[in-house]
């Protein structure tokens, strides 16, 4: 019986993959993943067998990995970013209940909240919330409650899946909710194609973010009430206490 590794490959570039993730892909027999993510690693592991499924075929992809492991192969199921943050590790472990003799090990990676934050500067130094605007698996009403709660608590917020062709106004709707508790001039940042060709970033206010056009390859950062722009970088202080008060 083979073994399955669920591997977070990071933002995309090979250089931003963890050493452990790269070694795992180098040692496995088969790499399974969503077509776009397989294309990111293919040139670095060209001798491997690759199996892909399109978007929204996640359960089928998991079954495919377990079938390959049943043949005695070592399998890597890859995800962008981290396997446990909007990745495949949860579903793999759920499907794995039907395959109790197959060992599954999760290999962490660098999620977009962290790699995008590094591009912008230091937006997530203090408490923050990560929220996906995709309502494929989560009702919009629940997403709305989470946005409002995070804004009221003055969290810095990182938004995944901020927009798509079918959800072109979701970022605008999210900003309208956040503006109920956050100031219009709250410092925000956007990063596109993190760690891939065409990477870009910009800083803007929450009011301006509301009008911004983004896509699924963009990660959005909204600061808390203390976040500032320093030398063109987005910086959130580590705490709220004034240093002069500490004695």
Features:
single chain; 247 residues; alpha/beta; Cobalt-precorrin-4 Transmethylase, domain 1; Methyltransferase, Cobalt-precorrin-4 Transmethylase, Domain 2; 2 domains; 5-stranded parallel β-sheet; 5-stranded mixed β-sheet; 13 strands; 25% strand; elongated
Folded structure, characterized:
With 247 residues, the protein is an alpha/beta fold. The chain folds into 2 domains: 3-110, Tetrapyrrole methylase, N-terminal domain (Cobalt-precorrin-4 Transmethylase, domain 1, 3-Layer(aba) Sandwich); 113-235, Tetrapyrrole methylase, C-terminal domain (Methyltransferase, Cobalt-precorrin-4 Transmethylase, Domain 2). 29% of the residues lie in helices and 25% in strands. Strands 3-2-4-1-5 form a 5-stranded parallel β-sheet, sandwiched between helices. The N and C termini lie far apart (61 Å). The model has no long low-confidence stretch (mean pLDDT 94).
């Amino acid at each position: 019986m083979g073994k399955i590794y669920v591997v977070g490959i990071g933002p995309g570039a090979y250089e931003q993959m963890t050493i452990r993730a790269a070694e795992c892909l180098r040692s496995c027999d088969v790499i399974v993943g969503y077509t776009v993510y397989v294309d990111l690693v293919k040139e670095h592991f060209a001798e491997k067998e690759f199996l892909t499924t399109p978007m929204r075929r996640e359960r089928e992809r998991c079954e495919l990995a377990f079938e390959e492991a049943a043949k005695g192969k070592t399998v890597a199921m890859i995800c962008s970013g981290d396997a446990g943050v909007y990745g495949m590790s949860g579903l793999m472990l759920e499907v794995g209940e039907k395959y109790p003799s197959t060992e599954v090990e999760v290999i962490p990676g660098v999620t977009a909240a962290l790699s995008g934050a590094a591009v912008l500067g230091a937006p997530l130094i203090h408490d923050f919330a990560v929220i996906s605007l995709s309502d494929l698996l989560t009702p919009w009403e629940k997403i709305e409650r989470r946005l409002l709660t995070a804004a009221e608590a003055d969290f810095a917020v990182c938004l995944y899946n901020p927009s798509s062709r079918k959800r072109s106004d979701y970022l605008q709707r999210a900003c309208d909710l956040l503006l109920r508790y956050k100031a219009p001039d709250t410092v925000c940042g956007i990063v596109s194609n993190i760690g891939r060709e065409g990477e870009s970033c910009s800083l803007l206010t929450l009011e301006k973010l509301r009008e911004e056009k983004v896509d699924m390859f963009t990660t959005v950062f909204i600061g808390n009430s203390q976040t500032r722009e320093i030398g063109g970088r987005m910086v959130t202080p580590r705490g709220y206490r004034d240093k002069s008060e500490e004695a």
